[in-house]
Write a structure and sequence with these properties.
With about 80 residues, this protein is mostly helical. The chain is built from four helices and no strands.
Length: about 80
């Protein structure tokens, strides 16, 4: 899943707190804290979207799983083993 957003939106200053030792270690390795934060925010949003999608489709998943439990799979019908 991917999140659509305006990659050209203006930058915004935010105040954050973080573990000082981690900040020092990342800076020592020339890590880009802003880019890391943005990637972390994207990862969070993708995870939330996936959870929301799973919840919205739970009824379909449950129905499919009941059908497989009752009737088996097509592979079962034609004698395939995976």
């Amino acid at each position: 899943m991917s999140i659509t957003y305006n990659t050209h939106a203006p930058r915004r200053h935010v105040n954050l707190t973080a573990n000082s030792e981690l900040v020092t270690m990342v800076r020592r390795e020339k890590g880009n804290l802003s880019a890391m934060l943005e990637q972390s925010m994207l990862d969070f949003l993708v995870e939330r979207e996936l959870l929301r999608w799973k919840e919205e489709n739970r009824t379909s998943f449950d129905s499919y799983n009941r059908m497989i439990a009752e009737r088996g799979t097509l592979a079962d019908d034609i004698g395939m083993s995976l």
